[in-house]
Structure formats: structure tokens, C-alpha cells
Design the sequence.
């Protein structure tokens, strides 16, 4: 307050990354400072050189009171993206802040919005091993089957980080193919093994084997149903010939 009253510019930016005082206040969790600075601004979320807003800063650090304040005064900024396509939900998911993620989703954040490398918030939470966030995102419309630019699912990311609990949760998604290979031809089990998580790799291999058995069983059952239907279906034994009279020849 003293600095502002002495003539300091509330909208000034740092030289390199163009961060405003509001960015720094949101990053540090100083709600009183945020409220004061907001009253001096124009009512829009300022953007840094990378198009990051104060909401991104608060979401990453899990400052839910500041996130609430910013969304109350600027609800249209909930899905603002940085130059790399990152939303506040990406940041909150990466930081493991389930309460902030829930608030952002309630305010209209898109759980399937991808950044420039096609990673969704679920990819971020899965790699970091944030089980509560993963559960929340899956319950609120995220998909474990979404591929990023390298052909990696959230399961690949969780496996690469050795996240056992997250792997177990993701494998419950019926749309997920546990044996999905990346563009490099690697499935989640291979990534886990390469990074030294042998037990997790074995678990994923078992998941893949079970899926293969189930798929084969479904295929066999479907084949039997088709064959049975072909042989058991009633066969029409009459038709109209060219003259319009019934014929005994089977169709």
C-alpha cells in the first residue's frame, strides 16, 4: 500500500518474463495483497510473456482461496491457456490439488483440454502420481485412453513414474487399452521396466494378458453366436417367381 500510494505502478512487469505484482502475489498465496492489487487493475487477468495468468500461478500452488477470488471476479478466465496450451486445470492437476481441480471443474474448466503436446490434465496428474486428482478427473469426464503427441496414454505416464495406485485406477477405465503402444512401439509395461519398476511392469503385463484373454473370449463367443444364428435362423422356403406365383425353392 505504501509503495502504491508513493506512485508504484500496479501493472508494471518484470523485465524478462513480464510477470506483474499480481502474478507474484498469487504465487506466494497472499490473498490480502491479491485483493488489494485487483482493486487497482482493470478487471482482466494480466498475462506474462508466456501468456500465463495469475490464476495459473495460484492453481499450481494450490491457493484455493485466491483461485476462488479470481474466478469470482473473472469467471471467463477459467480456461485461459498459456503459449504452450496449459490451463489452470493442468497446473492444479500437476500440483496434486484435488480441491482446486474440483473448483475449476465446477466453474466450467474442460477436463479434456489438451496442451500443445496433446497432454490433458489427466496426463499430468498420472505422471506425478496424484491419485485423488486422477480419481476426480476420471469421474468428471476425463479419459484414460487419450493419446498425447507421442502416442502415450495417461497409463504410460503413470507407469514411467512408477505410480502403482494410479496405474491400478487407470486400468479400471473400460475404454483403456492396457497394451496400447506409443509411436515408439512401447506399451506401459515396457516403460515401467525401462525405468526400473519391475514389479509394476509385471503387474501391467498381467493386466495386458487378462485383457488379451478377455478379448479372445469375446471374439470366440461372438463367432459362435454368428455361426449359431446362421444355422438356427428360420429359412424362408417360399418366394414369388417371375410370374408372381409361390415357388417351393428356398431363398
Sequence:
Amino acid at each position: 500500500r505504501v509503495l502504491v500510494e508513493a506512485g508504484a505502478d500496479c501493472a508494471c512487469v518484470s523485465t524478462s518474463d513480464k510477470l506483474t505484482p499480481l502474478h507474484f502475489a498469487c504465487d506466494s498465496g497472499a490473498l490480502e495483497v491479491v485483493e488489494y492489487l485487483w482493486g487497482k487493475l482493470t478487471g482482466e487477468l494480466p498475462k506474462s510473456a508466456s501468456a500465463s495468468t495469475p490464476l495459473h500461478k495460484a492453481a499450481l500452488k494450490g491457493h484455493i482461496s485466491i483461485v476462488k477470488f479470481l474466478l469470482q471476479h473473472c469467471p471467463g478466465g477459467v480456461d485461459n491457456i498459456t503459449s504452450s496450451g496449459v490451463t489452470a486445470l493442468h497446473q492444479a492437476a500437476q500440483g496434486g490439488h484435488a480441491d482446486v481441480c474440483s473448483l475449476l471443474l465446477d466453474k466450467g474448466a474442460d477436463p479434456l483440454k489438451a496442451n500443445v503436446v496433446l497432454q490433458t490434465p489427466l496426463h499430468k496428474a498420472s505422471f506425478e502420481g496424484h491419485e485423488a486428482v486422477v480419481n476426480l478427473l476420471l469421474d468428471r469426464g476425463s479419459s484414460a485412453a487419450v493419446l498425447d503427441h507421442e502416442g502415450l496414454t495417461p497409463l504410460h505416464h503413470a507407469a514411467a513414474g512408477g505410480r502403482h495406485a494410479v496405474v491400478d485406477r487407470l486400468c479400471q477405465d473400460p475404454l483403456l487399452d492396457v497394451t496400447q503402444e506409443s509411436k515408439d512401439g512401447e506399451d506401459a509395461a515396457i516403460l515401467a521396466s525401462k525405468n526400473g519398476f519391475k514389479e509394476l511392469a509385471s503387474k501391467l503385463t498381467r493386466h495386458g494378458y487378462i485383457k488379451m484373454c478377455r478379448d479372445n473370449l469375446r471374439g470366440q463367443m461372438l463367432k459362435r453366436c454368428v455361426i449359431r444364428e446362421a444355422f438356427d435362423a428360420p429359412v424362408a422356403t417360399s418366394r414369388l417367381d417371375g410370374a408372381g406365383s409361390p415357388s417351393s425353392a428356398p431363398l
Notes: The chain has 13 helices and two strands. Residues 13 and 186 are 44 Å apart (CA to CA). The first strand starts at residue 239 and ends at 240. The first helix runs from residue 2 to 5.
